[in-house]
Amino acid sequence: MRVRVVKVPLGDRTYSIQIGEGLLARLGPECRRLRLGNRCALITDATVARWHAPAAEASLRRAGFDCLRVTVPAGEKAKSLGHLEDCCDQLAKHRLERKSFIVALGGGVVGDLAGFVAATYLRGVPFVQVPTTLLAQVDSSVGGKVAVNLKAGKNLVGAFYQPRLVLCDLDTLRTLPRREYRAGLAEVVKYGIIRDAALFRRLEGDLLRLLELDPATVAAVVARCCQIKAEVVGQDETESGLRAILNFGHTIGHAIENSAGYGKYLHGEAIAIGQAAAAWLSQRLLGLPARDADRIVDLLQAAGLPVRLPLPGARRARLLQAMKLDKKVSAGEVRFVLARRLGEAVWGQSVSAAPLDEALAAVAGPAPKRNRTKRS
Amino acid sequence: MRVRVVKVPLGDRTYSIQIGEGLLARLGPECRRLRLGNRCALITDATVARWHAPAAEASLRRAGFDCLRVTVPAGEKAKSLGHLEDCCDQLAKHRLERKSFIVALGGGVVGDLAGFVAATYLRGVPFVQVPTTLLAQVDSSVGGKVAVNLKAGKNLVGAFYQPRLVLCDLDTLRTLPRREYRAGLAEVVKYGIIRDAALFRRLEGDLLRLLELDPATVAAVVARCCQIKAEVVGQDETESGLRAILNFGHTIGHAIENSAGYGKYLHGEAIAIGQAAAAWLSQRLLGLPARDADRIVDLLQAAGLPVRLPLPGARRARLLQAMKLDKKVSAGEVRFVLARRLGEAVWGQSVSAAPLDEALAAVAGPAPKRNRTKRS
User: Fold this and answer.
1) Which residue spans within A25-137 are E strands per DSSP?
2) CATH of region B4-175
3) One of B57, B76, B237, B239 is an active-site residue; which one?
4) Averaged over A317-336, what is the pLDDT?
5) Is B174 tagged catalytic?
6) Confidence of residue B371 (pLDDT cuts 50, 70, 90)
7) What is the DSSP string of A258-297?
8) Exposure of A43 by Cβ count < 10 A (0-12 exposed, 13-18 middle, 19+ buried)?
9) Greatest CA span in chain B, whole angstroms?
């Protein structure tokens, strides 16, 4: 299979995303081609390390790099300032210098933490993303958002810091638990909703092939998602406008993650519920056709993702509270990304308390509150 | 007294340094003029808070800002990732948003910590530096270097993040302990050595007026130092070359701070010893006239700064070890900034073990090892 290359156009910080099979073996030569320094640290988690660290390190060593492995615990709890400090302490102990570089090998958690390490250790060293989950490949590894969590919420401390290369080895997806793979599909569906109706239709048609990890389908879909993200990030790196559309489903999704405690829902699962609620709001407030709101919920469900959130009144209040801590809050008002139609999202939509509460009630019910009757 | 204004020319991130008396009262109106958001956090330390926080907050409130005070302990230990987390937790708890801003009120420690908070909280919020020590006014508040320490060394985790404004209120220097004021003079002397022989001569002539805080002398000297720093930072923001000259005396100075444990020497004191050693190396390796090397040591001493470091052999080895952790190390080699003549420094000078050891021996002796005999 050929390697697909997507450029993220950011002036002198432009970089490539490579998408294909067997790319781990190319990690060393690609880092060499970028003229990175001779020493590096491979930051990974305990789970990913078992599967993929030996191949990554072998490739780096064959290319002549001196490579330190730094392993963090698997799971969201690694995204803390404490783990940032642990990582930096290890880099300092091994005398990594400004010309040394960091390789992030893992999912979104590893990429976010390792990227923030790279952004801040010695005030910034180069880094390379090697995402090993679908979610990281189509979303978190691209675009330079890196961060750790605070008690008060996700990603509240971080930076915009671009990698020098993103290497998406599709083979790594085969070692991914099914649940995590499906969670990644939530972000894939998002790209269709916010920017590409044709992609959305393709997902509806190719969902089985995608769920079966058919190589050609996965490659094409991952590449298309990366292309959309690259386009958006190229136009608005630091989220002063357009980039906000990437947060479709995320305002409610992050609040679900925060108020449920990290770990109960995977990020993609929380985002799926958030997208179902955002679809409801889009229909109510922006005239998204009811049929399309249904298609969103249907596709997420067909991908095996949750779209309901059974929520007693007290917990709904906690959820609304969590939403107010979102980084997208402006002057105390929660702003939403909503879809006008499939393939077109608008950002900065202020939503008052009443429809927001209704949207949460709509996704809280035991049976889907569907528009389907209107279609028959 | 008129307010002196120095511009730091960094494209769309250009900002002003204002230098004068009574400027704390102008903090609120200046922030308003910059169209910063309505909410801010004033980060300060316990000591500075007593003296200056009420005036700063009163000015901000009069200008209509809602202001949260965040107080960290006084001293170098506040520059930790733990305190970064404490600060960010407080900002999150009080719902500071992306448009909110941070005011750093204090010396170098507060500026470095608060600046790093501003650089990373919500991936970056605007910030304003209000330096209250001489060292912070002429050096650390200008140029956007922000950082915290690791166990392994100073400033090993940080960012380049520019303030929107620097307000140097010369009145605040009157509340400064004499020892800290003198420590700041070490950086002042540095500017003369690396970039401005006329400033150096002026310092030799005006030292008493400077030590007595004569307003006109202090204003002129602080403004000239800021001008030099602004020029250098404007040409090389991220220290890929020229900016390194600002580290004259710092390679050894940082190592002294690290190996002595933070707190024994003030930064400026360690830098003074480092400059004495660098003067020795400059004379030996770069042909700095012996007379000028003496003038450097004399001026530092006349300012009440240490220029000797009594150091048994075992501790000298620890010092050399600490030096290898410096951020300026490249390919394992310690690089120095040295002076070719007064007013002209060169960076990236590799110094082998022998002369480095001799330089440390030279500053270790009980009596100054002077060239003065050659002058008579």
Assistant:
1) 39-45, 66-72, 101-106, 127-131
2) 3.40.50.1970
3) B239
4) 74
5) no
6) low
7) HHH-TTSS-HHHHHHHHHHHHHHHHHHHH---HHHHHHHH
8) buried
9) 67
What pTM value is reported for the model? Answer: 0.92
Indicate whether A54 pLDDT > 80: yes
Point out the catalytic residue in the list B79, B229, B295, B335. B229
Our answer to whether residue B247 is catalytic in this structure is yes
Check CB contact of B325 with chain A, cutoff 8 Å.
yes
- pLDDT tens per residue across span B51-67: 999 999 999 999 999 99
Report the pLDDT value the prediction gives residue A257, as an integer from 0 to 100.
85
Hey, is the C-beta of B84 within 8 angstroms of any chain A C-beta?
Answer: yes
Distance CA A304, CA B130 (A): 54
Which CATH architecture does the domain made up of B202-375 adopt?
Up-down Bundle (1.20)
Identify the residue among A123, A333, A347 best suited for mutation to test binding to B, counting B beta carbons within 10 A and taking the highest: A123
A124 in contact with B, Cβ within 8 Å: yes
| Total Cβ atoms within 10 A of residue B68 | 18
Decide if B35 touches A, using CB distance below 8 A.
no
Residue A329 banded pLDDT, cuts 50, 70, 90 = low
Where does CATH 3.40.50.1970 sit in chain A? 4-175
In 3D space, the residue among B37, B9, B5, B3 whose CA is nearest the CA of residue B21 turns out to be B3
Instruction: Classify domain A182-375 by CATH number.
Output: 1.20.1090.10
DSSP state of B38: S
Q: Hey, what are B217's tokens?
A: 């002398």
Q: Which residue has the tokens 């970056």?
A: B124
Closest approach of B36 to chain A, Cα-based (Å): 12
